Amino acid sequence: MQCCIWVRKNLNIPEAAECSTRCLSQFVIFGVDVRYDVGVVSGSLADISNSLDLSTIQQEAATSGLNFVAGFGALFVSGNVLDRIGRGKTIFFASLLLLGGAAMVSLARSFPVLLVGRALQGLGSGCSWAACSVYITEIAPREYRGALVTLADISINFGILLGYCVDYAVRDHFAGQPNVGWRVAMGLSGVLPLLYCMLFPLLPETPRWLMLKGRETEALHVLQRTTATGTDDDATHGVLRRMRSTLDKNAVNGKQVECTWREALWPKEAHLRSTVRVALFLGMAQQLTGTEAILYYAPNIFKVEVAF
Questions:
Q1: In this structure, are residues 77 and 127 in contact, taking their beta carbons and an 8 Å threshold?
Q2: Which of 51, 69, 167, 256 has the highest count of CB atoms within 10 angstroms of its CB?
Q3: How far is 10 from 131, CA to CA, in rounded Å?
Q4: In whole angstroms, what is the distance from residue 188 CA to residue 190 CA?
């Protein structure tokens, strides 16, 4: 909770919007946990391979398989679950997947069990990151939305660093027990999702989702807690009316029209097309540069360089 206090003070966020920054502090937890995996797997890969007698192909599957499943979770699973059960519950569902995956990986005695555990972690990572972005976008005051999403993104880098540090500390503590060290390091990835589950009751559902479900009274209550208008009924009702107007524009016969893949990738509005192209280019460029592979295999790369 200290994170939300720091954010509110340094960004001059009004007292009435503190709930939004409290939500942010919980999503920082997810950002850290999702990328903690990169650092800890990078340092533990050799011990995992020796402990389970993995081939090179199996090592690659256990390492990169998480990203493939995460992509599937973000694209095909999270969207349906988000609309069906809500943003907050989707993140709770993702945290359970991350917890289950961490338990399976840390207790794995064979490659198939390890792979299933990694798949659960990947599905949880994909669902959580997609849901977190939607949640912050829908619940944060628009004047602070970009800053809050950016802070959540910064937590990704801290998560990678934390993974490396934890792996180093665990390897040092269990120096003579490599079969135990990697299990402890991987098992610790379940701590942050568990913390989120404990904090989940503090999270309100987003006003937009509540409006979609016809729960306007609850949406009004959430807006009063999370926006700068606070208890100003006129201003809060104005926000609610604008939200209803936007939803009505996207509805046909009272039902929301779902966006197709074609519309998502090629919007009708020219300014949106430019935004989508830039976003796709940045995402592809990040992966095509091989950054992810270097982070996962950094210890192996350094070993080869030193040997050379």
A1: yes
A2: 167
A3: 26
A4: 5
